[in-house]
Amino acid sequence: MARLRSFQRLAAHFVDIADFLLVYIEEAHPSDGWVSSDAAYNIPKHQCLQDRLRAAQLMREGAPNCPLAVDTMDNASSAAYGAYFERLYIIQEEKVMYQGGRGPEGYKISELRSWLDQYKTRLQSPSTVVIQV
């Protein structure tokens, strides 16, 4: 949840230049599977889409102002983006511009913030146009 709060703050800070989307994928540490010692929630392995939708509501509570999508039960989004357990991406005009490392170790909000800061600076800088006569 701490990471989710950091993500929410980042999304609020850059709302003027980017759209943010959370995608809830397969539960990394289900309560009836490989349980993490610091698990904040008791979420069993999803047996159906309804299970996944219920679990995703916890994510919505952690980032109420951010749109939320839920991966399919065949984990299509997770497979396509290598997102298991968690991962940050910037997609611009259907092209991956930034791909963070796999979480939890590779999940670095600071890298995402740096990329967005640089992008915002480029947006605010006047472009130089050279015209040959």
TrEMBL record:
Source organism per UniProt: Thalassarche chlororhynchos
Gene Ontology annotations of biological process type: hormone biosynthetic process; thyroid hormone metabolic process
MF-aspect GO terms: thyroxine 5'-deiodinase activity
Role: Responsible for the deiodination of T4 (3,5,3',5'-tetraiodothyronine).
PANTHER family recorded: IODOTHYRONINE DEIODINASE, THYROXINE 5-DEIODINASE
Residues spanning the membrane: none
InterPro entries named in the record: Iodothyronine_deiodinase
Protein keywords: Oxidoreductase, Selenocysteine, Thyroid hormones biosynthesis
Lineage, uppermost ranks: Eukaryota, Metazoa, Chordata, Craniata, Vertebrata
Gene3D superfamilies linked: Glutaredoxin
Family per record: Belongs to the iodothyronine deiodinase family.
Full protein name: Iodothyronine deiodinase
